[in-house]
Specification:
By secondary structure, the chain is mostly beta strands. It has no helices and eleven strands.
């Protein structure tokens, strides 16, 4: 059974940072391109990152480029999203997913999400 579990969300002030984690079971993330997407209330899903299988290619949405960094630890079957300089418009539920595509689509498998609220 494939399961992805996100964690690390919370309430943070504008300009703050959070690191999200996503741990997989039943799915060896090392063999898949893995990424993150988010969905804010009343808005469409937005793909925000995708790492290729060998991490040689990284794609980020323009809205997060330069502020968010994705990484993975294959020994822990875990991927991370370091989010810096957070803005109120980053408020959303964040999901990890695999496989993803370099145009920030796909995400056939995904977790239940973790909520991020950016507010003073």
């Amino acid at each position: 059974q494939v399961q992805l579990v996100e964690s690390g969300g919370g309430l943070v002030q504008p300009g703050g940072s959070l690191r999200l984690s996503c741990t997989g079971s039943g799915l060896p993330l090392a063999y898949y391109p893995v990424g993150w997407f988010r969905q804010a209330p009343g808005k469409e899903r937005e793909g925000i990152s995708c790492m290729s299988k060998d991490d040689s290619k990284m794609a980020y949405a323009d809205s997060v480029k330069g502020r968010f960094t994705a990484s993975r630890d294959n020994t822990r079957n875990t991927v991370y999203l370091q989010m810096n300089n957070l803005k109120p418009e980053d408020t959303a539920t964040y999901y990890c997913g695999a496989p993803c595509t370099q145009n920030l689509g796909g995400f056939g498998y995904s977790g239940q999400g973790t909520q991020v609220i950016v507010s003073p």
